[in-house]
């Protein structure tokens, strides 16, 4: 995968600055940190093993403060486009009660995406995440976008990563972009009508090999072997175990996401009472997972189907 190279015809944002639209080549990899909502408009991407489906928003977070998320392009011949619809809005409202979609903003983002899609096989729409007390620490650049403040940084809660070895055409701030036509590779004319984006304003972190999560080839082989085994066997169970700090949680998320590409639901029995993935410490819990695990444990806490509170936790509760 090549590092993402930002050029003027690949990045744009809506007037509200709540959305940034990005075009990608199939072989590119976009690395970022923080929190953001992601919607695939065209093409496909993989995030920690999960193949994001076009149309619906995903809540994407850095795996932890010391790691970066990777969004990898997937080669495909499909040019199917998935704008925001009433189904997108209904799906969103189920889990984002306090942050309703503004369909005018979504339509503006879709218009920019259609322009960029003429030249790039993958088009992604990023939406800034609503600020709450729980995620305030991840909000890098101050307040949320405001219609009365043109200087607000787009997507303040998320940072793209600038790679030094990649050429960038957006090194200097630019004034608001006027409507103009540009020629695409096939000679057709493309109209831009979005805000000019200073990529440095949403890209201030330098890459570091320790911080970026890289899926080892052995993990990919093991996950593929698990999928093959489950496809031919009625015994669809696996156990993840290992010493402290070897990557059990990350590997479990990766395998769950790979399974969700094939199966609509994955049962997850969380037996790590010290640092559980889906519940509070001290609890054994069984969960039925239907959405990908795209962040640290606290971002996808869900009520357990079954749970057992350990004796020690109950004793501590009695002593308080």
Characterise the protein shown here.
By secondary structure, this protein is an alpha+beta fold. It is built from 5 helices and 15 strands. It folds into 2 domains: 153 residues, no CATH class; 93 residues, P-loop containing nucleotide triphosphate hydrolases (Rossmann fold, 3-Layer(aba) Sandwich), CATH 3.40.50.300. A hairpin with a 5-residue loop joins strand 2 and strand 3. The longest helix is centred in the C-terminal third of the chain and has 16 residues. The C terminus is likely disordered.
Fill in the keyword field for this structure.
ten-stranded mixed β-sheet; kinase; alpha+beta; Rossmann fold; transferase; globular; disordered C terminus; three-stranded antiparallel β-sheet; 24% strand; ATP-binding; nucleotide-binding; 2 domains; P-loop_NTPase; 5 helices; 320 residues
Count of distinct structural domains: 2
**Number of DSSP helical runs:** 5
Tell me about the largest β-sheet: 10 strands, mixed
Helical percentage: 10-25%
Shape, principal axes of CA atoms: globular
Summed over residues and divided by their number, the pLDDT gives a mean of: 75
- Percentage of residues in DSSP E strands: 15-25%
Termini separation comes to 53 Å
Count every beta strand, where a strand is a DSSP E run of 2 or more residues: 15
Cα gyration radius (Å)? 21 Å
Low-confidence stretches: 136-151, 167-204, 316-320
- Structural class of the helices, strands and pairings? alpha+beta
Task: Write down the secondary-structure element order.
Answer: EEEEEEEEHHEEEEHHEEEH
GO cellular component, one term: nucleus
Keywords: ATP-binding, Kinase, Nucleotide-binding, Transferase
Organism: Aphanomyces astaci
Pfam families: CLP1_P (PF16575), Cupin_NOL9 (PF24419)
């Amino acid at each position: 995968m090549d590092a993402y190279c930002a050029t003027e015809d690949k990045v744009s944002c809506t007037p509200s600055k709540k959305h940034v639209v990005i075009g990608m080549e199939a072989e590119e990899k976009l690395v970022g940190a923080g929190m953001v909502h992601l919607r695939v408009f065209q093409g496909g991407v993989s995030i920690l093993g999960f193949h994001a489906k076009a149309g619906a928003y995903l809540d994407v977070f850095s795996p932890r403060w010391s790691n970066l998320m990777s969004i990898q392009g997937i080669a495909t011949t499909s040019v199917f486009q998935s704008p925001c619809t009433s189904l997108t809005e209904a799906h969103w409202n189920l889990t984002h009660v306090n942050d309703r979609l503004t369909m005018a903003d979504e339509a503006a983002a879709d218009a920019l995406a259609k322009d960029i899609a003429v030249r790039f096989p993958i088009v992604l729409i990023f939406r800034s995440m609503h600020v709450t007390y729980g995620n305030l620490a991840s909000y890098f650049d101050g307040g949320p976008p405001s219609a009365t403040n043109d200087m607000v940084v787009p997507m303040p809660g998320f940072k793209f990563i600038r790679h030094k070895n990649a050429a960038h055409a957006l090194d200097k701030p630019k004034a608001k972009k006027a409507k103009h036509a540009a020629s695409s590779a096939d000679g057709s004319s493309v109209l831009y009508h979005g805000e000019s984006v200073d990529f440095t304003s949403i890209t201030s972190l330098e890459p570091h090999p320790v911080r970026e999560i890289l899926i080892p080839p052995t993990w990919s082989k093991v996950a593929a072997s698990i999928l093959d085994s489950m496809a031919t066997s009625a015994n669809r169970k696996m156990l993840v175990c290992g010493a402290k700090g070897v990557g059990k949680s990350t590997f479990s998320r990766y395998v769950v996401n790979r399974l969700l590409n094939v199966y609509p639901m994955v049962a997850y029995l969380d037996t790590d009472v010290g640092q559980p993935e889906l519940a509070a410490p001290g609890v054994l819990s069984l969960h039925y997972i239907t959405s990908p695990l795209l962040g640290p444990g606290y971002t996808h806490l869900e009520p357990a189907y079954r749970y057992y509170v350990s004796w020690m936790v109950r004793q501590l509760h009695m002593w308080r």
